[in-house]
Input
Amino acid sequence: MRMIFGTVVLLTASLFFAWTSYISFRFPRQFGERLGFTIGGLDGLNEIRAQYGGFFLGAALVNALALMGVLSRQTSFAVNAVVFGGLITGRVVSLALDGGMNGYGGAIRVLFFVDAAGFALSIAASFLERLSGQAT
Output
């Protein structure tokens, strides 16, 4: 059962990362605008593609390789925890500095949940697989 939970976490993270990568590569201007950015030129498009497209593609590949048994699942859980943990930490700090959620759009509000859940689920899956002695 613990391996199934971990597999679901890896698959879900991989799909989330792959989708984020695809959308930011394919539609960088629209992607940025949904996050509140105004893209003024090719530099901005390049930055969206690099920071979101490339970064999230790498994270998706780590998860996919773990699902295929090429990388250890623990490595993938650690990558997910770092990615989601860094994102939720930045969001919480921003929330404190901004004085609350007033002014945040719907996409950013949803990402608070996504990042917190991704962090918690990655830690839980790693712990459960280590506890069962099936960590690879």
Q: What stands out?
A: The mean pLDDT is 95. Residues 91 and 112 are 7 Å apart (CA to CA). The radius of gyration is 16 Å.
